[in-house]
Design goal:
about 425 residues; Rossmann fold; Alpha-Beta Plaits; 18 strands; globular
């Protein structure tokens, strides 16, 4: 669906503090659509879903004024998964209809900011796949239970509700951004501000590239321009990818040929495998993709003494000289459980892993014989040794300056022409 705004899903678990995050995002200018509010609206007396629920669960779920007694109904559905599915079958279609109407209203008004859909069971329902980005709010188990019991002291009911939802760790694995709300308000609000800044930045970059905001996906091609082999022209690669995928209205690329980086609108989790496959087919090179959120986390992890040289290199001051910052993107999540820190080779140091597949490194690059490929190999060899892997770990390395160029939108872009078959410069 083409939209004027960035659509962000917000979810979490019981008593993780999702509402406080939602309130903070509203104060930052986001439009909030609350699924709980929609759920209450669709079962108000006189609404079709209200009659459906009473017919299914009986008049015992009504209050004296005819409205649904949400606590009684909740006690029924949280105790029995089948009963919960019956309730969801009655209400979710009505909620989706109302949600779509709200989105259409915002689009017709010309709203082009960030819309946040706040929904507790967004992942369980599968609706997270329809979001441009997903934010999950978590809290440690002790904090979660203490907050819930302070709000409603029924421990047995709380445990039923928690067990009825997907574990927070599983939700977090699907998230673009995870906000840990275990600490104090100031810490949470600082995290919310960073997430909002990153979402706003991403939306702005895509707006400049394509004319409307949206999510971004960067494609990095492995072994391009590798010691004279695999010649790679970024514009040609972008044109070929656009020609191979008719759903793409624009493709951007990093203009420096050694970077071998192409950028597209993120098609979401369901569509990414197609982009990877097409990217590999049109270039005959391994394609490794990262979202804007992945790249933003890499930038955030840079030490305080990071700077940019007059030539645009991103470096870290080290005594009397500077070390280049190089990021290694791995094809699979393989870092977990592997000790990867400190010196990996005489000129290469692993600084921090920002995920199980992204590693920030420092490189004293020799003026003549060095290449970022040496950093990639050092990281992959170290991980393979730690895991005992065969075949070897696969990754690709990029100078941090390339990552920053993507984050700042310093890219060239081409658009599909009105004929739908030819590509032209924007």
């Amino acid at each position: 669906m083409s939209r004027r705004f960035l659509l962000v899903g917000l979810t979490g678990g019981i008593a993780t503090g999702k509402s406080s995050v939602s309130d903070a995002l509203r104060q930052l200018g986001c439009v909030i659509i609350d699924a709980d509010v929609l759920a209450r609206e669709v079962v108000e007396p006189g609404e079709p879903a209200h009659a459906d629920v009473v017919r299914e669960f009986g008049p015992g779920v009504l209050r004296p004024d005819g409205a649904l007694d949400r606590k009684k109904l909740g006690a029924i559905v949280f105790a029995d998964p089948d009963q919960r599915k019956r309730l969801e079958a009655l209400t979710h279609p009505r909620i989706r209809e109302r949600f779509q109407r709200r989105l259409q209203e915002l689009d017709e008004r010309g709203f082009d900011g960030i819309v946040v859909f706040d929904a507790p069971v967004m992942i369980e329902s599968g609706n997270y796949k329809n979001m441009d980005r997903l934010v999950v709010v978590v809290a440690d188990a002790a904090t979660q239970r203490a907050r819930a019991l302070a709000r409603d002291g029924d421990r047995q009911d709380l445990e039923r509700r928690i067990s009825s939802q997907m574990p927070l760790a599983e939700k977090a694995r699907l998230a673009d951004y995870v906000i840990d709300n275990s600490g104090d308000r100031d810490a949470t609000e600082a995290e919310v501000r960073w997430v909002h800044h990153s979402l706003t930045r991403e939306s702005g970059v895509v707006r400049r590239l394509s004319g409307s905001p949206g999510p971004l996906l960067a494609l990095f091609f492995r072994n391009a321009q590798h010691y004279g082999t695999n010649p790679f022209d970024p514009r040609t690669a972008a044109c070929r990818l656009g020609g191979a995928d008719q759903s793409l209205s624009w493709v951007a690329y990093h203009p420096s040929p050694p970077s071998a980086t192409v950028v597209v609108r993120d098609p979401g989790r369901e569509g990414r495998p197609t982009i990877w496959r097409l990217g590999a087919e049109v270039t005959r090179l391994t394609c490794i993709a990262r979202t804007f959120a992945d790249l933003a986390r890499v930038e955030r992890a840079l030490p305080a003494n990071t700077s940019e040289t007059t030539r645009g290199k991103v470096v870290v001051e080290h005594g009397a000289h500077q070390r280049n910052v190089v990021v290694v993107f791995l094809k699979k999540d393989v870092v977990a459980g592997v000790k990867l820190a400190g010196k990996l080779a005489p000129r290469i140091e692993a600084l921090v892993a920002t995920s199980d597949r992204d590693i920030v490194c420092l490189y004293d690059r020799p003026s003549r014989s060095g290449s970022n490929g040496q950093v990639e190999r050092a990281v992959c060899v170290s991980i393979a040794k730690g895991r005992g892997d065969t075949p070897p770990v696969v990754g690709t390395a990029r100078a941090m300056s390339v990552v920053k160029d993507v984050l700042d939108g310093r890219l060239e872009v081409i658009n599909r022409s009105t004929s739908g078959t030819e590509w032209r410069g924007a």
